[in-house]
């Protein structure tokens, strides 16, 4: 006998049935909700940037982005091993300029933003021939809600650059796209958001040492982890300034988002749970990426978010990996078609072809649209609830049963003061995005009955009084 295989088809096939779940024996009764799934809702896009967010996004200026990127290029080289003391050339001059820019931006925040230089000495390593000072520049925009401000969202980019030889710190290295574009976007987002703090805390970061081994971001992420910081996301912008690749393809309204599957910091126990549940596509980074697609695609950005189910480009790593290593959700934004004549190349002309990461190859209108995608998603993240914690799927069957078509979900109550309820989301195990949702009220457990639970993935997200949704918290199996 054949049967529908997709979740949507299965649910449609039972649309007239009354499917009422029952609670597993022994489950605590507080917060119980038994849910009928005869008419589940298709997920619709809930995030339409409100007027204040649209106003912020409209202020993102291609001219400002170009001016910032041009200034960064003007330092000649920003190689990690270049001069730290020359006032006009080298990474030291670039660091001081970024610091001064963020200080000026902080002055518009009414005291909500603070700026620091986070410096440390990196010991000798394969790409660091002598002990070298590495300096991150960090601006923190404090959240306004006491029940949400402990959450931190990092918006980062690396300001160091390189040429063909990773140890060549004397040649001109414009770094206009990698990663002057990301730093320019970070500065512009800090500028437009500084005087409009969100409920949660946003950190704007310029990392150094990326090209030499992710050293700046690794130090910063480790410091946050050691302090017990509740980093909910790192949105890393690396090489986001050109839609045109050396393949001749131009995608002017698309930005890629890399998101890993099996977590970088997964323990053997974590991997065993993912394998048992088929959750390899449901780590924190994947849920963050899905959320970015939900909140980054809208009329205010005029962009499509293309999700790439990889941690980064093949055999590559950028600063999001440092945050993943600390078990923080993190993704990388990058242009869909890179031109490898321009990335990590000496400035030269060969056979009539211009090489080098030059300003002329950055499309600042495209960069502005990408910046709006990041801004739209950050605004949604920082003004919506956090993902519910400790979300689990209770798999112990009732006494006398070997199994059940009922799925019992538990999660911890959110601490945010404006959370009014929760939503269970579902999808077929092979669907890339969540497809169906059911609001279950302000409870901390629910029993879901679906005809084909072994082919269904479950998650939970919180809803606030404005209808804002949190990222999804995947339900891991628990007895």
What does this structure look like?
This protein is an alpha/beta fold. The protein folds into two domains: 7-39 and 388-478, Immunoglobulins (Immunoglobulin-like); 51-383, Aminopeptidase, CATH 3.40.630. 26% of the residues lie in helices and 23% in strands. It contains eleven helices and 20 strands. Strands 3-4-6-5-7-10-8-9 form an eight-stranded mixed sheet, sandwiched between helices. A hairpin with an 8-residue loop joins β18 (456-464) and β19 (473-474). α3 packs across α5 (176-193), α3 crosses α11 and α5 packs across α11.
Task: Quickly list its features.
single chain; 479 residues; alpha/beta; Immunoglobulin-like; Aminopeptidase; 2 domains; 8-stranded mixed β-sheet; 5-stranded mixed β-sheet; globular; disordered N terminus
């Amino acid at each position: 006998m054949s049967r529908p295989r997709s979740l949507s088809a299965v649910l449609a096939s039972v649309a007239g049935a009354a499917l009422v779940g029952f609670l597993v024996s022994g489950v605590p009764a507080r917060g119980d909700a038994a849910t009928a799934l005869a008419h589940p809702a298709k997920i619709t896009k809930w995030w339409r940037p409100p007027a204040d967010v649209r106003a912020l996004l409209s202020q993102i200026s291609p001219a400002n982005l170009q001016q910032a990127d041009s200034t960064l290029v003007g330092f000649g080289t920003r190689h990690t091993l270049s001069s730290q003391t020359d006032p006009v050339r080298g990474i030291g001059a670039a660091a001081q300029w970024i610091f001064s820019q963020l200080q000026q931006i902080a002055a518009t925040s009414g005291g909500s933003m603070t700026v620091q230089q986070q410096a440390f000495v990196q010991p000798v390593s394969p790409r660091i021939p002598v002990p070298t000072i590495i300096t991150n520049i960090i601006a923190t925009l404090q959240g306004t809600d006491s029940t949400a401000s402990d959450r931190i969202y990092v918006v980062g980019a690396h300001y160091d650059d390189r040429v063909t030889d990773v140890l060549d710190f004397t040649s001109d290295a414009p770094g206009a796209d990698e990663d002057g574009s990301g730093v320019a976007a970070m500065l512009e987002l800090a500028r437009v958001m500084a005087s409009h703090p969100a409920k949660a805390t946003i950190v704007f970061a310029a990392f150094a040492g990326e090209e030499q081994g992710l050293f700046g971001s690794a130090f910063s992420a480790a410091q946050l982890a050691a302090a017990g910081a509740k980093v909910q996301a790192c949105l890393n912008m690396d090489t986001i300034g050109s839609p045109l690749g050396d393949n001749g393809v131009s995608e002017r309204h698309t930005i890629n988002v890399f998101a890993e599957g099996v977590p970088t910091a997964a323990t053997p126990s974590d991997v065993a749970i993912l394998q048992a549940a088929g959750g390899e596509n449901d780590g924190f980074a994947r849920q963050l990426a899905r959320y970015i697609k939900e909140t980054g695609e809208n009329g205010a950005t005029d962009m499509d978010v293309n999700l790439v189910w990889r941690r980064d480009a093949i055999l590559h790593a950028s600063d999001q990996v440092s945050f993943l290593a600390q078990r923080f959700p993190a993704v990388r934004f990058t242009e869909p078609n890179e031109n490898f004549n321009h990335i990590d190349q000496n400035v030269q002309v060969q056979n009539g072809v211009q090489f080098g990461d030059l300003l002329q190859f950055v499309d600042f209108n495209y960069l502005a649209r990408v910046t709006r995608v990041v801004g739209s998603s950050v605004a949604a993240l920082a003004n919506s609830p956090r993902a519910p914690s400790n979300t689990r799927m209770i798999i112990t069957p009732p006494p006398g049963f070997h199994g059940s078509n009922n799925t019992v979900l538990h999660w911890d109550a959110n601490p945010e003061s404006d959370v009014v309820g929760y939503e269970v989301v579902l999808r077929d195990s092979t669907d890339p995005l969540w497809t169906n949702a059911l609001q279950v009220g302000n409870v901390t457990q629910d029993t879901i009955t679906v005809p084909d639970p072994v082919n269904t993935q479950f998650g939970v997200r919180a809803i606030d009084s404005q209808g804002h949704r949190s990222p999804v918290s995947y339900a891991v199996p628990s007895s």
